[in-house]
Amino acid sequence: MAHITVAKSAGFCFGVDRAVKMTYEALDTYPAVATLGPIIHNNNVVDDMLRRGARIIDTVSELRPGECAVIRSHGVSQSVYDQLHALGNPYIDATCPFVAKIHKIVAKHTAQGDYVLIAGDEKHPEVAAIMGHCQGNCAVFEDDQSLINFFKTKYEKLEKRVAIVAQTTYNILVWEKCMEVLPKDDPNIMVYDTICHATQVRQSDADALSRKSDLMMIVGGKHSSNTVKLFDVCRKNCRSYHIETSDELYTLDLRNARAIGITAGASTPAHIIEEVKTTMTEIIELEDINFEEALEQSFKKIHTGEKVKGIVVATNNNEAIVEVGTKHTGYVPLSELTDDPALTPADVVKVGDEIDLIVTKINDQEGIALLSKKKVDEQKGFEEIIKAKDEETVLEGTVQHVVKGGVIVGYAGVRVFIPASQSGLPRNAEMDVLLKTKVKFVILEVNDHRRRAVGSIKAVQKAEKEAAKEKFWETAEVGATYKGEVKSLTSYGAFVDLGGIDGMVHISELSWKRIKHPSEVVKVGDFIEVYIKELDKDSNRISLGYKKTEDNPWEKFKANYAIGDVITVKIVSITPFGAFAQIIDGVDGLIHISQLANKRVDNVKDIVAVGDEVEVKIIDVDIESKRISISMRALLEDSEEAAEEEAEDAE
Predict the structure, then answer these.
(1) 504, 542: one domain
(2) Residues 32, 66: contact at Cβ < 8 Å?
(3) DSSP 183
């Protein structure tokens, strides 16, 4: 069986570990946090920070008021510090101290008029930041050939001293070649060995380990510069693979390798390195099982990967203890019993239960066998998944995790990936709203080798919506009333969900009053009662009514007012031919210019103004045309007649 060795220097370096801790502290301290670029080149860590509320921004201008900015370990140019100070936002400087030291070196030399050469990748954020402290008086070179070219074509013309620094993660082997091609004994050339000691050790360890290995596994982000350099170092010595997670191991050829080495970039957490080692061990053990020899051995022997039956003899808070019919004591950890963190082993199995298990690890010296119920459940569940895909069955499961690009739904022990585009949520919506919720989905794709499946919530929702539409059209008729949710508003009306199909309430049907926008009456999310005014199944159009007949202000007017009534009204607008006055909400009457006074009126504004309350007499009503004539003059004439009658009575 292959022997696996993990390089001692693999994983987080001091600067990256410091930056990650400072970012998590910022998330605990400030209400809003944004990192200037991904804090490290590791998707698992970055995704966890995003779930905790962090944002990733490219420039200082994207900061929101009061938001705390975090400068990552790569550092930033001096201009970024100036922008932060000008903006006034709080910020945390997580620049690696070794990078900050380079900033001081190049700033000092360029201030003295010297020229700076930087060994590294010009596109790397660390190099870009270093250049940002050079005031433009610098150049970047990739390797010894680029350095030779510089001294042949540009050095003499510069007439300046030259300071040479290196990106902290620069390839140590390439750096050594560069030092060999420098002009000898030139006092105007100053070299600073700024490659991080941890980087040097990591690359040296990787070089040494790869020389005595048949296969090297380099773990880290695909865009991580220092991880790529480790891969370059190792592949010169043996077959090498660059992976980000343990899932990629299932697609690789691990055969014919008796000595396997593992190293990892500075952005790779220890738990990912351990997952890679554990998964690789499991794969190798499964491949190394010789079933012919196993059959020849006593039936009391068990092997890693073997399916066995176990009887539960005890449970505690962490595991179930089972009897498997051999000299081994079987243990099923809680993590191999269930994915639900709220359950205990006793919630899943009971003493005396006979359960199917898969052996994950054997320790013959201590007489221990580690077992998994989840792997058996996963096998059964995967068979159900395959059947569900073939039969297009709708399944139901709980969203367990939000991951980059979608969510993971658990079904019968199988992790089903639902891409964001198939989540049923609007584009760019937050996937967190689905976490821990039950969802219905169908299976779109199945990967037998990796036991992975891809599903769609959207497809189920679409099918349910189509079914609801068909049901609606079977029973829909003009006049039928529905209670629906307002889904959206436009300038011309409101769209209401009637249960799988939308209808529109035109703005004129929302209120008896004149309104400028539907939002004056309803808002998105309101549940309102509507009735069907018109139906057109061919064009899938439904016109709805909302305003009620009993709320019609003209009906109220008819019931409470008549010609000859004297009422108090409020002037609401003035025209050259008269004034309009509000009788009740939604009903106005016209006081013609000839009805304003018992004398000739040349200008309406000489008699009334908007906002005035005046007494009038209703002199004419045309309900059909919605016109009402009212008069101030009629009241004046009535007063004069009354006065004349009193005078005649007095004689």
Answers:
(1) yes
(2) yes
(3) P
Give the CATH number of the domain where residue 358 resides: 2.40.50.140
Task: For residue 84, give both structure tokens.
Answer: 């932060």
- Whose tokens are 């930033």? That residue is 76
Q: Lowest-confidence range among 141-155, 206-220, 334-348?
A: 334-348
Band of the pLDDT at 295, cuts 50, 70, 90?
Answer: very low
pLDDT at position 646 is 65
> Which residues are 191's β-sheet partners?
164
**562 with 643, same domain?**
yes
Phi, psi of 282 (to 5 degrees): -60, -45
Which helix (H) or strand (E) segment holds residue 320: the answer is strand 319-323
Q: DSSP secondary-structure letter at 324?
A: -
Residues with Cβ within 8 Å of 420's Cβ and at least 6 positions away in sequence, in order, are 405, 406, 407, 431
For 45-64, write each residue's pLDDT tens digit: 888 899 889 999 999 999 99
Closest CA to 577 of 595, 550, 556, 553: 595
- SS3 category, 368: strand
Domain endpoint, select from 255, 290, 325: 290
Half-sphere exposure of 10 (CA within 13 A, CB side): 26
Total domain count, the chain: 5
Q: Measured between alpha carbons, how far is 539 from 547 in angstroms, rounded to an integer?
A: 25
Residue 126 designated active-site: yes
Q: What CA–CA distance (Å, rounded) separates 471 from 540? A: 13
User: Of 25, 62, 122, 126, which one is the catalytic site residue?
Assistant: 126
For 625, the token pair is 């045309």
pLDDT of residue 231: 93
pLDDT digits (tens, 9 = 90+) for 172-205: 889 999 999 998 888 999 999 898 877 778 888 8
Domain that includes residue 259, residue range:
1-96+199-290
Structure tokens at 184: 């000898």
Closest C-alpha among 412, 350, 403 to residue 380? 412
233 shares its domain with 260: yes
